[in-house]
Amino acid sequence: MTKPRVAILVGTKKGLHVFRSSASRSRWAHEGPYFAPQPVYHASFDPRDGESVYAAVNATFGGPRIEVSRDLGRTWTTAANPAFPAGSDLTFKRTWHLEPGHASQPNVLWAGVEPAALFRSDDRGISWQPVRAINEHAERPHWSPGGGGLCLHSVGIDAADPGWMTVGISAAGVYETRDGGKSWTNGNAGTRSPLPRGESLLGRCVHHLVAHPTRSGVRFQQNHTGVYWRDGTATRWTDRSAGLPSDYGFAAAIHPHDDATAYVVPLHDRLRQAPPPGIAVYRTRDRGASWKRLASGLPRGAQLEVMRESMAADRLDPAGIYFGTTNGEVWASADEGRSFSQVAAYLPAVLSVSTITS
Predict the structure, then answer these.
(1) What is the mean pLDDT of the segment spanning 83-89?
(2) Among 190-204, 240-254, 331-345, which is the least confidently predicted range?
(3) What ranges in the chain are assigned the alpha helix state H?
(4) Which residues partner with 78 through β-bridges?
(5) DSSP secondary-structure letter at 318?
(6) Strand pairing report for 249-254 and 226-230
(7) Which end of the chain is more exposed for a tag (fewer CB within 10 A), N or C?
(8) How distant, in Å, are the alpha carbons of 58, 219, 258 from that of 333?
(9) How far is CA 1 from the centre of its chain?
(10) Residue 198 burial (C-beta neighbours within 10 Å; 0-12, 13-18, 19+)
(11) Where does the pLDDT of residue 199 fall: very low under 50, low under 70, confident under 90, or very high at 90 and above?
């Protein structure tokens, strides 16, 4: 029986770096950078076929493109870009997120782009079709750009139901479909707006949203105004910010096996860096009812910044927890956050971190 292996896909401001290790996760071999010096906003592994990796390359010169690998990120082929229908007043600018579809739909891939829109591929990322029901949603005139632009940056596929999908848009909030994208509803109930809006559910600013990979209905998000949890058939989010040093941050990850465990990296709202006493990962084991600060092995007092896609878990047991910083560091824990060690330093600013478990 082949022993499991792990890789970390690190998208940076100047290319994609890959770090590979055995299941011990004690030593890491470096590959890349691929696509340098172009920004890579996100890279994702497809566990359905065990070989495909997708990269969102957003070149400053030459334009954005999506790259596809069928050998775990060692060689790459350029795919078609998403494109809005003829007559649309929207123009594709960049890809923010690439998400493999449900296990029952092995050829489906989803792309979240800027300006905020969702695209679907039925041929494993080679070509794309717009999801018009969300792209032309009636509430779209009320969406506004966040600090990073108007972008659809999070896609959560339900573990059991391929028609149930939740997306995060900055700055509009959460939208949800239960029919595979034919219709969408506003999913912001229970969250707070950064600006006074009365009872309106418009204008929310979700920073990162994840769905649990094996438990249906579990959703977790880091918002501009708090950390929120939703479970089962709930239609409202529960604010779980109490116990954190800040209700602001970008990165969020959920445990691959335990549906009550999740991780965040809080930031100071105004300074956009770790609040005192410095960089740390916070873990909940009870759906956010309580939080524990995890900083063993991390530099004491370091006021580091972690971006929205820059935190991930692998699927081993115990699970590995990883994050990258805008200082160009990558940190890893092979024991679910109890201790961290440095995988890399002096990379360009890290924009995204994701994992391969093979």
Answers:
(1) 95
(2) 190-204
(3) 132-135
(4) 67
(5) S
(6) unpaired
(7) N
(8) 29, 23, 17
(9) 32
(10) exposed
(11) confident
